[in-house]
């Protein structure tokens, strides 16, 4: 959503699928090492992720970009694989040109490293060097796509900083990083497929309709507990204006039993992830011009 918001105000967007860095696994925010995937799964997973990203891109351009902006033709939204440039980098090249730009003390200060060391589980050398490996992505995009800003979750601050440092130390240039707050549960835990449980309310919310049908996707969001509902959540996951968010939160405060926020959120996210046809079938509305321009407080029949 952070990238799409940047696109909505006129930026070109590059989305990177980690087909190269997945071989190591990002240790950020983890107390233990990630489970290693078999090499045979990399390509399958990458294709599925690219497919979901392409769907979201198309749904965004068709259903959100045109009704929220007046900037004319959209700038490009490009999906890339970092394996395309990382897989061709030799070990000696990485050590000579990349790893030599970092000092051990600064890597030891990274939150991901401190978290693992303090947990007592330790850290492998490949995980320790992961921030330097991800920094190559930013360097490549800077040099080949004129990318000046990297956007990531708050847990990516250390990795983004390494990218900024690498660009400055290697090229003498400056780039910028922007982090967005993570989605968290009421007890402060990160929302994610590896952090959630298996219960109905704690189960992962998959983007793929093969893992979670559009109906189940809609229902999963509709049934979000009231403890999760906040104006911050709406700002993170929708394109609603400040006035619309304020109206929704007021309706939620006055009549929480009608679940106005959950209904609006479920409708918008289903539209973004699965498209207008699925959204209309699930909400019982026809996606007409009057519906698009109508208030977000409309009660959605099931």
Automatic annotation (TrEMBL):
InterPro entries: aa-tRNA-synth_Ic, Rossmann-like_a/b/a_fold, Tyr-tRNA-ligase, Tyr-tRNA-ligase_bac-type. Keywords: Aminoacyl-tRNA synthetase, ATP-binding, Ligase, Nucleotide-binding, Protein biosynthesis, Signal. One of its GO terms (molecular function) is ATP binding. This is Tyrosine--tRNA ligase. Residues 1-18 form the signal peptide. Pfam families: tRNA-synt_1b. Belongs to the class-I aminoacyl-tRNA synthetase family. PANTHER family: TYROSINE--TRNA LIGASE, MITOCHONDRIAL, TYROSYL-TRNA SYNTHETASE. The keyword Ligase applies.
């Amino acid at each position: 959503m952070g990238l799409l918001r940047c696109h909505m105000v006129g930026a070109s967007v590059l989305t990177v699928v980690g087909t190269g860095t997945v071989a190591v696994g990002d240790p950020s925010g983890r107390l233990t090492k990630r489970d290693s995937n078999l090499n045979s799964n990399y390509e399958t997973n990458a294709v599925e992720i690219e497919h979901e990203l392409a769907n979201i891109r198309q749904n965004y351009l068709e259903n959100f970009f045109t009704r929220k902006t007046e900037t004319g033709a959209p700038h490009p939204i490009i999906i890339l694989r970092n394996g395309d440039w990382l897989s061709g980098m030799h070990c000696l090249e990485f050590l000579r040109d990349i790893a030599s730009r970092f000092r051990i003390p600064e890597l030891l200060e990274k939150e991901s490293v401190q978290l693992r060391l303090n947990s007592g589980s330790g850290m492998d050398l490949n995980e320790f060097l992961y921030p330097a490996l991800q920094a190559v992505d930013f360097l490549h995009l800077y040099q080949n796509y004129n990318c000046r800003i990297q956007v990531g979750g708050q847990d990516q601050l250390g990795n983004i900083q390494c990218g900024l440092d690498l660009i400055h130390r290697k090229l003498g240039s400056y780039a910028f990083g922007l982090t967005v707050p993570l989605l968290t549960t009421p007890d402060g835990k990160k929302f994610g497929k590896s952090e959630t449980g298996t219960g109905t309310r704690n189960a992962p919310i998959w983007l793929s309709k093969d893992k979670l049908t559009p109906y189940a996707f809609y229902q999963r969001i509709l049934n979000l507990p009231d403890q999760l509902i906040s104006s911050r959540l709406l700002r993170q996951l929708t394109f609603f204006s400040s006035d619309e968010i304020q109206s929704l939160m007021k309706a939620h405060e006055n009549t929480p039993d009608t679940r106005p926020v959950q209904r609006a959120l479920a409708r918008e996210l289903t539209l973004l992830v699965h498209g207008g046809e699925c959204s209309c079938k699930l909400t019982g509305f026809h996606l007409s011009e009057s519906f698009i321009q109508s208030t977000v407080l409309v009660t959605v029949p099931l």
